[in-house]
Design goal:
Layout (H helix, E strand, L loop, with lengths): L4 E5 L4 H10 L2 H4 L2 E5 L20 E4 L2 E4 L1 H10 L3 H10 L2 H21 L21
Parallel strand pairs: 1-2
Antiparallel strand pairs: 1-3, 3-4
Helix pairs in contact: 3-4, 3-5
Protein name: DCC1-like thiol-disulfide oxidoreductase family protein
Organism: Bradyrhizobium brasilense
Length: 134
């Protein structure tokens, strides 16, 4: 996505839902598309090499960010009061890497408590595949 951002997140995870709603990135970067990873949106298939059960995905500019790296970049782009707090905590890459497993564990526990399955991902056609960055 060359203009704006695309965020793919777990729409069944109450933490993920609220996190992406609270970011209010449109004020800062313009167009932001939020895509529920469970929605069947065809754009999800091109990112099949990223495990969306391991973290949300951010496509911003020409870059793809996943998991802790995605929340780190989102924190750096944020501007509201919630976002300033988010930025203060997660805009340090080491803090984001250390905290992200706890956030992911909270997501997994919440999904299990609500009886919701993990995200099912299928293979993407070769012409749509995006390889993870090293």
């Amino acid at each position: 996505m060359s203009d704006g951002a695309l965020i793919i997140y777990d729409g069944e995870c109450i933490f993920c839902q609220n996190y992406v709603r609270l970011l209010r990135l449109r004020e800062r970067i313009g167009r932001v598309e939020l895509v529920d990873a469970r929605s069947g949106d065809p754009r999800i298939a091109q990112y099949c090499c990223y495990d969306l059960n391991e973290g949300m995905l951010l496509a911003y500019g020409e870059e793809i960010y996943h998991g802790a790296e995605a929340i780190y970049v989102l924190a750096k782009l944020s501007s509201t009061l919630f976002n300033r707090l988010n930025r203060a905590i997660l805009s340090n890459p080491t803090a984001a890497r250390l905290l992200y497993p706890l956030l992911r564990a909270g997501r997994n526990l919440t999904l299990a408590a609500r009886g919701k399955p993990q995200i099912e991902q299928g293979p993407a056609p070769p012409e749509l595949r995006q390889e993870p960055r090293p």
